[in-house]
Design brief:
The chain is α/β, with parallel strands linked by helices. The chain contains 25 helices and nine strands. The protein binds iron/sulfur cluster (2 copies).
Length: 419
């Protein structure tokens, strides 16, 4: 089928109107490469890299084309084809994909470095000199919204077991994430405390590692599989009933570990066990948790306007866009305002806003028109990448002080009645 129903929902097609920038166009290019009509070389690679991987094309497709699986295979093919030509890129990739991300110890070192950069005064010096801007405008913009990183992750601060408040409903395993755990440590802590308030014993297996999403999306499927197997072992040993993620980007690959390991039959049972237990924080709170009680702020005379930006992966892969909205509507003194096209990608898409800054900024500008129209005080998201991208948009549009981008776990925990 080449119906084109996927075209109007594709952010890169919407921006360019070019067939090759659409899901249908990219699938045609993949087919041409498979049929030997074109080489999976640089121009093919560029076209594949322009894709955000947001997967908005999947729910729109009447033929149930698994575009996410196709793009991962295409990127794997590009990596294999171009490996011998790019020694310096290989060096950087090896350091990032094989040494930094798989090691939580190294991620904590990175967190310590970022913490020092912000707190030592070095950040002010760097900003005054404008040295980052000499390298890249995008890096300079991103530097402005660096979160408060930490050299300590959640298990260093809370331990590996947090009991349920009141009667226990189930035992959940917390997927802490690699970057999430050092760049948004407080969000992880509040996620665990929300789970405890809702009646869950929370286990945080120390031996878990990065989910492998960046690897799988960048043509490093062998490394992604290795990380997946390690996570499956860690959570099976912990004997949990559910596995909770608070980052849509991570959750979407965790829920597809069965597909990632589909060509390794000896892993089938374990991968199925894992994949069917994965839930986003909002989904498990709504579906399985004891209802949270939210405080009505007695001092508040007016209601707070709140809007929500979907995480593409939470919406299109985990099918979890409703529970977050439901929870936000339950919070006292909140008026929930639905944003136009809230389900459309914000341009963050993992590291897309670093690797494809032009398109990412174009998409962000379109998104900000809809964000600003909500006149909300809080812009809530469920993924760290979206959160940073929204902070960047708010900063660029001079909305700082009027509007704040927050993760849903932070927003809910700050307003829940604690027992
Ligand atoms: S994943 Fe997103 S950007 Fe890529 S083709 Fe599908 S809709 Fe377009
Ligand atoms: S991917 Fe699906 S929606 Fe898009 S052209 Fe093909 S069949 Fe139609």
């Amino acid at each position: 089928m080449r119906c084109g129903f996927c075209l109007p929902v594709c952010p890169t097609f919407k921006e360019t109107g070019i067939e090759a920038e659409s899901p249908r166009g990219r699938i045609s290019l993949m087919k041409a490469a498979v049929d030997g009509i074109m080489e999976p070389g640089i121009s093919f690679e560029d076209q594949m890299n322009h894709c955000l991987g947001c997967r908005a094309c999947e729910p729109a497709c009447p033929a149930d084309v698994k575009y996410g699986q196709l793009i991962e295979q295409a990127r794997d093919a590009v990596e294999t084809h171009t490996k011998q030509h790019r020694w310096w890129i290989r060096g950087v990739r090896k350091m990032v994909f094989k040494e930094l991300f798989p090691s939580q110890q190294k991620m904590r070192l990175l967190g310590s470095g970022m913490h020092f950069y912000k707190k030592s005064g070095l950040q002010s010096v760097v900003r005054k000199t404008g040295v980052v801007g000499l390298f890249s405008k995008q890096l300079s913009d991103m530097e402005k919204i660096l979160p408060d990183a930490s050299g300590k992750g959640i298990t260093q601060l809370l331990g590996t077991f947090i009991p349920a408040k009141g009667e226990k409903i189930a035992t959940v395993g917390m997927f802490r994430g690699c970057l999430m755990d050092v760049m948004f440590t407080q969000t992880n802590i509040k996620t665990v405390k929300l789970l405890s308030e809702a009646g869950f014993d929370v286990v945080i297996p120390e031996t878990q590692n990065c989910c492998g999403a960046l690897h799988a999306h960048s043509g490093e499927s062998d490394q992604a599989k290795m990380l997946a197997k390690n996570n499956i072992r860690a959570f099976q040993e912990a004997g949990v009933d559910f596995i909770v993620s608070n980052a849509g980007g991570c959750g979407a690959i965790l829920v597809e570990y069965d597909h990632l390991l589909h060509d390794e039959p000896e892993w089938k049972e374990a991968a199925d066990w894992f994949a069917k237990r994965v839930k986003d924080i909002s989904t498990i709170l709504v579906e399985k948790g004891r209802p949270l009680q939210f405080a009505d702020s007695e001092s508040a005379t007016t209601s707070t306007r709140v809007t929500y930006q979907d995480s593409c992966h939470l919406r299109n892969v985990m099918k979890g866009s409703n529970p977050s909205r439901q929870l936000l509507k339950e919070v006292g003194n909140v008026t929930f305002v639905e944003m136009k096209d809230a389900g459309s990608c914000c341009g963050s898409a993992g590291i897309y806003n670093v690797t494809q800054p032009e398109m990412a900024n174009q998409i962000l500008e379109g998104k900000m028109v809809n964000v600003n129209a909500t006149e909300a005080s809080y812009l809530v998201t469920s993924n760290p990448g979206c959160l940073l991208q929204m902070k960047l948009g708010i900063d660029k549009h001079g909305q700082k002080g009027k509007m704040e981008a927050v993760h849903i776990a932070d927003f809910l925990y700050d307003r829940v009645v604690k027992h």
